[in-house]
């Protein structure tokens, strides 16, 4: 009798503990972007079953990038659209970085949490999380892109302009030792994001500008320059996806680019064929590139390809 009574009491205690954890409210952070897009960063922590939720409003076709850096390897994030029965992204399966085009207008929630084993031990996870929302296919052509970026003492003023009626990117560097001449680059799509980085860790920055033409199946583009030893700018070459037949299988464009640590990441949906009537397989392919010196300048070399 005592044994059965002990077992019943233990079960009741377990159920009570589970119910208590289910009642722990999340920490909710509303994320607002000026002009409907931009970048925000948070450095916070969670403990045990406590979760954090970052809520943002977005439009269909906008590109969301989430970069998550936790101190605890049991900490992850999920992304869900309001009203959806399934997660758009599951970090415990796919990792700590997401970049992709959002499927519909509405509210999206990025939830940070600890896996159950770590939560049960009441562990702590300190983390940094960056949430970047860029315009993608939803870019407003009536608001030309303009941004200032700086790294390692070199400044870049980027502005979208029109030359002879055609969209053109103007890059005005400042701080280079030899040549700070204005550069112009014809555009085939809308600018969706720009980032400054030092992928090869040589103490001299590069600038990466991602573009996208509206519509299904349109390829994304990249304009990139390196500040050679902080003296002058030279163009960085990105080989086409078709250079690697295996990577190109099911490729129909719709690329999104982002700098993740010391790599450039390219992500795109995989289609079931190369035909005009092809359908999406539901998988995404991610290609990582590292910056290397080529025969005539800098080149982004394919380093790693993953699919999920």
List the helices and strands and how they pair.
Layout: H1 2-22, E1 27-30, E2 38-47, E3 52-58, E4 63-70, E5 75-81, E6 89-90, H2 91-94, E7 97-101, E8 106-114, H3 116-120, E9 124-134, E10 146-151, E11 154-163, E12 166-174, E13 183-186, E14 190-197, E15 206-212, E16 220-228, E17 232-237, H4 245-248, E18 256-260, E19 263-271, E20 280-293, E21 298-307
Parallel strand pairs: 1-3, 17-21
Antiparallel strand pairs: 2-9, 3-8, 4-7, 4-9, 5-6, 5-8, 10-11, 11-12, 12-13, 14-15, 15-16, 16-17, 18-19, 19-20, 20-21
How does this structure look, described?
With 308 residues, the protein is mainly beta. 11% of the residues lie in helices and 52% in strands. The chain has an 8-stranded mixed β-sheet with strand order 14-15-16-17-21-20-19-18, with no helix packed on it. The protein has a 5-stranded mixed β-sheet with strand order 1-3-8-5-6. Strand 11 and strand 12 form a beta hairpin. It is globular. The N terminus is likely disordered.
List the main descriptive attributes of the protein structure presented here:
308 residues, mainly beta, Jelly Rolls, 2 domains, eight-stranded mixed β-sheet, five-stranded mixed β-sheet, 4 helices, 21 strands, 11% helix, disordered N terminus
**Fraction in helix:** 10-25%
Describe the main β-sheet briefly: 8 strands, mixed
Instruction: Please indicate the count of domains.
Output: 2
**Low-confidence blocks of residues:** 1-21, 137-141
Terminal Cα span: 53 Å
Biggest sheet strand line-up: 14-15-16-17-21-20-19-18
Round the mean pLDDT to the nearest integer and report it: 84
- Number of helical stretches of at least 4 residues: 4
Return Rg in Å. 23 Å
Q: Characterize the overall form.
A: globular
Topology as a string of helices (H) and strands (E): HEEEEEEHEEHEEEEEEEEEHEEEE
Number of strands: 21
Tell me what portion of residues adopts beta-strand conformation: over 45%
Decide which structural class fits the backbone. Answer: mainly beta
């Amino acid at each position: 009798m005592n044994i059965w009574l002990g077992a019943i009491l233990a079960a009741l205690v377990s159920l009570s503990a589970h119910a208590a954890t289910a009642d722990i409210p999340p920490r909710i952070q509303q994320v607002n972007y000026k002009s409907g897009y931009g970048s925000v960063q948070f450095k916070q922590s969670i403990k045990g079953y406590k979760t954090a939720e970052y809520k943002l409003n977005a439009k269909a076709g906008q590109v969301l990038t989430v970069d998550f850096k936790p101190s605890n390897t049991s900490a992850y994030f999920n992304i869900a659209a309001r009203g959806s029965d399934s997660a758009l992204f599951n970090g415990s399966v796919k990792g700590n970085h997401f970049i992709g085009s959002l499927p519909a207008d509405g509210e999206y929630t990025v939830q940070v949490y600890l896996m159950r084993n770590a939560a049960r031990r009441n562990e702590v996870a300190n983390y940094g999380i960056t949430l970047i929302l860029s315009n993608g296919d939803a870019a407003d052509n009536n608001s030309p892109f303009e941004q200032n970026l700086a790294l390692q003492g070199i400044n870049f003023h980027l502005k979208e302009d029109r030359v002879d009626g055609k969209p053109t990117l103007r890059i005005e560097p400042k701080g280079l030792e030899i040549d700070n001449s204005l550069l112009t680059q014809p555009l085939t799509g809308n600018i969706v994001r720009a980032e400054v980085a030092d992928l090869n860790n040589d103490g001299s920055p590069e600038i990466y500008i991602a573009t996208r033409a509206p519509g299904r199946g349109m390829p994304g583009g990249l304009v990139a320059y390196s500040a050679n030893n902080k003296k002058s700018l030279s163009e960085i070459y990105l080989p086409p996806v078709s250079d690697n037949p295996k990577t190109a299988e099911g490729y129909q464009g719709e690329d999104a680019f982002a700098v993740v640590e010391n790599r450039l990441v390219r992500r795109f949906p995989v289609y079931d064929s190369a035909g005009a009537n092809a359908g999406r397989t539901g998988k995404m392919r991610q290609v990582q590139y590292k910056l290397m010196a080529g025969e005539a300048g800098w080149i982004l070399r394919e380093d790693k390809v993953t699919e999920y």
